[in-house]
Amino acid sequence: METTPLTPRRDHARTPSPTGLYWSERGVVACARHAPYERSDTWNWERWEPLSREDAAAFAEAGCRPARCETCGLQAR
Ligand SMILES: [Zn+2]
User: Fold this and answer.
1) What is the C-alpha separation between 22 and 4, in angstroms, rounded?
2) Which DSSP string do the residues of 12-33 spell out, in sequence order?
């Protein structure tokens, strides 16, 4: 007899990001693994969205550093 474990679905149902990164209204950057779950409270409250190439360029210019995940260091591709 099989049981279905109740586990969070990781990396599913992500809106694709052109850079592989996401960011929040507060300027926090994270990769698909480390961004909050889409449609979670955190995702909604902090207004997370995919980081576009234009935003990544503007972020790098404003912050004098490339956009990268703050958890694992993955950079925009
Ligand atoms: Zn990461």
Assistant:
1) 31
2) -SPPP-TTSEEE-TT--EEETT
Ligand 1 center to residue 7 CA distance, Å?
A: 20
Cα 34 to ligand 1 centroid, rounded to whole Å? 5
pTM (global) more than 0.70: yes
- Of 31, 47, 51, residue with least CA distance to 39: 47
Q: Which long-range contacts (CB under 8 A, 24 or more apart) does 8-14 make?
A: 8/37, 13/38, 14/38
Q: What spacing in Å lies between the alpha carbon of 33 and ligand 1's midpoint?
A: 5
**Cβ-based neighbour number of residue 68 at 10 Å:** 18
Residue 68 C-alpha to ligand 1 middle, in angstroms? 8
Q: What is the mean pLDDT of the chain?
A: 88
